[in-house]
Amino acid sequence: MQSIDPIYSPFPTHIVKKDTSLILNMLHCSPVSLITSKYKGRTNIMPVSQYTVVSTDPPYIGIAIERSRFSLDIIKASEEFAINIPTLSLLHYVEYLGRYTGEQMDKIDFLQIETFTPVSITAPLLHKCCAWIELEVHDIHTIGNHELVIGYPKMLFADPASFSDGWLTSTINKRPLIYIDTNRYSVLGKEFLAKTPQGGDNHLKKMHEITLEHMQEIKEDENKLQEKMHEISKEISNDVIADMAAAIINDEIITNN
Questions:
Q1: Per-residue pLDDT averaged across 124-128, rounded?
Q2: Is the per-residue pLDDT at 176 higher than 90?
Q3: Can you give the pLDDT at residue 2?
Q4: Nearest alpha carbon to residue 134 among 93, 75, 174, 90
Q5: Rounded to whole angstroms, how far apart are CA atoms 26 and 47?
Q6: Which of 57, 102, 203, 209, CA to CA, is 20 to 30 A from 35?
Q7: How much of the chain, in percent, has pLDDT values that exceed 70?
Q8: Are 16 and 130 in contact (CB under 8 A)?
Q9: Who has greater pLDDT, 112 or 243?
């Protein structure tokens, strides 16, 4: 393990190491990532949503970084970086970090973002995330006004409450943050299991049957929602009528007195 600055807290005991073959499962939903990098005492952090798996054997991840970004200079010099996948707890930090450069200030120190010790690189890892990937730079390609950084994952870690062999969706504060546009974000929501074709199926007929079944389920859900809304409306109406009756009775009592 490389010598790490003492400002980093120890590696959390609840985080588990995962096989790098699971990277494709981890990045399928394109979660937001916070890229951390470090070179000669300078650290930086930047949010990225433009990245993907470009090879599975061996595994490589491609990250598109605008050429004017300070992080790109550090990554080129250090030839390593980390992907930190944030949870909802870092929502406002993600938005802030994307709007200011780290060239004139240490954003991690300025925002007092908690970090912990990496295993195979020098770039810090971030608390309040649900997964972490330590990478070394394999190659860099210029594409338009961006540089496509190809990273080889050396280590993959995950919070077991967030990720097993795929993402878990039971606890909202443990789900990965997803970027929509501008300053809108989301997290993974309800799961739907798609039916897969089996050998010997008449695929067109099977797809038709599955679609009809799915549409029926949607209709039943809509009917249940309408019934619930009717019940709520009825309860509200009854409450209003009761309040009006009470007011009339009270007014009559006062008048008679």
A1: 96
A2: yes
A3: 43
A4: 75
A5: 17
A6: 57
A7: 86
A8: no
A9: 112
Torsion of CA 27, 28, 31, 34, to 10 degrees: 20
For the chain, the average pLDDT equals 86
What does each C-alpha distance from 131 to 31, 228, 229 come to in angstroms? 10, 39, 40
**What are residue 58's phi and psi, to 5 degrees?**
-75, 160
Q: Based on the number of CB atoms within 10 Å of its own CB, is 24 exposed (0-12), middle (13-18) or buried (19 or more)?
A: middle
The answer to whether 31 and 177 have CB atoms below 8 angstroms apart is: yes
